[in-house]
Amino acid sequence: MTQELKTELEAAAFRRLVEHLQQRKDVQNIDLMNLSGFCRNCLSKWYKAEADQRGQEMDLDTAREIVYGMPYSEWKQKYQQESTPEQKQEFQRQNPDH
After folding, report:
1. pLDDT in the model for residue 83
2. Is the dihedral of CA 87, 16, 20, 75 positive or negative?
3. What is the average pLDDT value for the chain, to the nearest integer?
4. pLDDT category, 85, cuts 50, 70, 90?
5. pTM
6. Using CA atoms, how far apart are residues 82 and 31, in angstroms rounded to an integer?
7. 36 closest CA partner among 19, 51, 17
8. What is the number of structural domains in the chain?
9. What is the pLDDT of residue 55?
């Protein structure tokens, strides 16, 4: 496999992941963090960091809009639910330094 094809496949897989996360608005970020150790916000930060490394100016709001499919403030207003005490406790257990 050539590096170009590998990069194309990785980009396609990333686009599918983002599309999947955009469709699964019922899945809260805290659930993603508790189960996998990353969430939509992490993915947005990674996207921005990669842009920065390549000299491409991008603010976090732009990266979040790419991942969320809408402005982050709009997503929060429409879809974000209050975390339960159990979710918060699990988050602290899984991420004590976060």
Report:
1. 94
2. positive
3. 95
4. very high
5. 0.88
6. 12
7. 17
8. 1
9. 97
Distance between CA atoms of 47 and 27, rounded to whole angstroms? 20
Q: What is the pLDDT of residues 43-78, one digit of tens each?
A: 999 999 999 999 999 999 999 999 999 999 999 999
* Residue 81, domain extent: 3-93
Number of Cβ atoms within 10 Å of the Cβ of 3: 7
Cα gap 14→67, rounded to integer Å = 10
| Residue 98 scores a pLDDT above 90 | no
Distances (CA, A) of 16 to 3, 19, 83: 20, 5, 27
User: What are the residues whose beta carbons fall under 8 Å from the beta carbon of 63, sequence distance 6 or more?
Assistant: 44, 45, 47, 48, 51
Q: Is residue 36 part of a domain?
A: yes
Find the helix packing angle between 60-68 and 40-53, rounded to 10°. Answer: 130
Cα dihedral across residues 71, 77, 79, 85: positive or negative? positive
Q: What is the CATH number of the domain that holds 16?
A: 1.10.3340.10
Distance CA 23, CA 47 (A): 19
